[in-house]
Design brief:
The chain has one domain (6-248): 3-Layer(aba) Sandwich (Rossmann fold), CATH 3.40.50. By secondary structure, it is an alpha/beta fold. The longest helix has 26 residues, at 104-129. Helix content is 40%, strand content 15%. It has helices at residues 15-26, 38-47, 63-77, 104-129, 153-173, 205-209, 219-231; strands spanning 6-10, 30-35, 53-57, 84-87, 135-140, 177-184, 239-242. A seven-stranded parallel sheet has the order 3-2-1-4-5-6-7, sandwiched between helices. Helix 4 (104-129) packs parallel to helix 5 (153-173). Strand 1 (6-10), helix 1 (15-26) and strand 2 (30-35) form a beta-alpha-beta unit. Residues 190-217 are annotated as: Disordered.
């Protein structure tokens, strides 16, 4: 199996992570997925061959859990390298309510699920990434790192931290490992949820019209961006908005 490249995706059970994992498996890669959603992982295990897919239940914001997962990953890889890491895990709901009502424990939950998780997983993955040539890390940020909606303080802060972590890692880990960030905009994840929560999108005309490309984003769009960054050997420390042009367009109230 040494001739096959391997990608590790956090938050792989649903949505963007599931699409990235599936996309790369379809390209012939071996895939490793980490998630806390046992039901979603069970679906993926049933769909993907065990010799080319390793799905592990893991809370990537917890240091001990990451260490245990990487013990399994190390055994599964043997002496093979990890080619690509995608730090995608986060709390999907960005809304936390008024600032004066936001408990520190809730704030920390958002930060740990996204930013702390990216640190812990990257730290554990670096020795495996350095085994090969052309390794890359794609951190999934958000357009909310640079623009906000009301009451999204913790989510925005975690994604802003991801942006800063990205350029810091790119400078420090190069030339062995390239590190870039992808900032998704409005991505419709309904078709990429586990079966019990799967849904068919029904976007309004004005939803589509907010985007200069004329549609809402799909998780596949993010998977393609990850593939681009991995192949782009002269690109590191960059932050790419994948948002259909939404952040470039002036939007006015009706």
């Amino acid at each position: 199996m040494a001739d096959k490249q391997t990608i590790l995706v956090t938050g792989a059970g649903n949505g963007i992570g599931r699409a990235v994992l599936t996309h790369f498996h379809g390209l012939g890669w071996r895939v490793i997925g980490l998630d806390t959603d046992e039901e979603a992982l069970a679906e993926l295990r049933a769909a993907l061959p065990q010799d080319s897919a390793l799905l592990i239940a893991c809370d990537v914001g917890v240091e001990d859990a990451v260490a245990k997962a990487f013990a399994q990953i190390g055994d599964w890889l043997g002496d093979d390298p990890l080619a690509c890491l995608v730090n995608n895990a986060a709390i999907a709901d960005p809304y936390c309510g008024p600032l004066e009502d936001l408990a520190l424990t809730d704030w920390q939950r958002w930060i740990d699920a996204c930013l702390t998780a990216a640190f812990l997983v990257s730290r554990a993955a670096v020795p495996l990434l350095r085994r090969g040539e052309g390794a890359s890390i794609a951190n999934i940020s958000s357009t909310r790192a640079v623009m906000s909606e009301p009451d999204t303080f913790a989510y925005a802060a975690s994604k802003g931290g991801i942006d800063a972590l990205t350029h810091s890692m790119a400078v420090s880990l190069g030339p062995d490992i390239r590190v870039n960030a992808i900032r998704p905009g409005w991505i419709e994840t309904g078709p990429w949820q586990k079966e019990s929560q799967r849904s068919v999108p029904d976007h309004r005309k004005k939803d589509r019209a907010q985007h200069p490309v004329g549609r809402v984003g799909r998780p596949e769009d993010i998977a393609e961006a990850v593939a681009y960054f991995h192949a782009a050997g002269f690109v590191t420390g960059q932050h790419l908005n994948v948002d259909g042009g939404m952040t470039a367009k002036m939007i006015y109230e009706d």
